[in-house]
Specification:
The chain contains 5 helices and 3 strands; from the N terminus they run ααβαββαα. With 107 residues, it is an alpha+beta fold.
């Protein structure tokens, strides 16, 4: 069995399952906010190893999991690399201006 066959699928909430409370809770942590700022600064996906945050790999995985569960980011597995992207379209459709406001306030 190949290594990628043993990886669990990456779960994401449907757009209708994303709540403003969950999004705000996820964005309240400075490390998670830094991750979102990096993702918001590009139209490209960023591999976990490409994110610049002052935490260990396992802690980064935890933070990305919280962001995914809240519906803030999406993850995609390619081989042994996990790519992350901001769910800007979903967030902007559900909560117009929220993401831009949070990111502007974080500057």
């Amino acid at each position: 069995m190949a290594k990628t066959d043993t990886l669990p699928p990456i779960a994401h909430p449907a757009r209708a399952e994303i709540t403003v409370e969950g999004v705000l809770r996820a964005l309240a942590d400075p490390v998670r906010l830094a991750i979102v700022r990096q993702l918001a600064g590009t139209d490209q996906e960023i591999a976990c190893g490409g994110l610049t945050v002052p935490v260990t790999k396992s802690t980064l995985t935890h933070h990305l999991s919280i962001l995914r569960q809240a519906g803030v980011v999406a993850g995609r597995q390619e081989g042994t690399t996990r790519f992350n992207s901001l769910r800007r379209n979903d967030l902007d459709a559900l909560f117009p201006g929220l993401l831009n406001g949070v990111l502007a306030a974080a500057r």
